[in-house]
């Protein structure tokens, strides 16, 4: 079975999606991220979607559920590298990602989870 690798960068988990996610792979990623976040005590989770060309309503829901669940584990989720066409499609479909902070790039996501203040262009839909 195909998997998304999850790297442990000190107290931040990084999942870089390099392929279009099937529904099952998205659910597996959600389960593994939550298990790893709880086991490691990570304070942040970054999901890099820069290689993803399509985010459908199911994947949007899974990303939201990951962020909300990770928050209950006292950590924060940042989705990094969303392509402009993906953002436009989400808006056209009327989809929102409540609780999900977005970042332009992986370095920006790391800054958001570190001591640096949020950079201009960061987007946090729940005001955090």
Give a structural overview:
By secondary structure, this protein is an alpha/beta fold. It is built from 4 helices and 6 strands. The chain has helices at about 25-40, 55-70, 85-90, 105-115; strands spanning about 5-10, 10-15, 45-50, 75-80, 100-105, 125. Strands 1-2-3-4-5-6 form a 6-stranded mixed sheet, sandwiched between helices. A hairpin with a 2-residue loop joins strand 1 (about 5-10) and strand 2. It is globular.
Topology:
Layout: E1 6-9, E2 12-16, H1 23-40, E3 44-48, H2 57-72, E4 76-80, H3 84-92, E5 101-103, H4 106-113, E6 123-124
Parallel strand pairs: 2-3, 3-4, 4-5
Antiparallel strand pairs: 1-2, 5-6
Keywords:
128 residues, alpha/beta, six-stranded mixed beta sheet, 4 helices, 40% helix, disordered C terminus
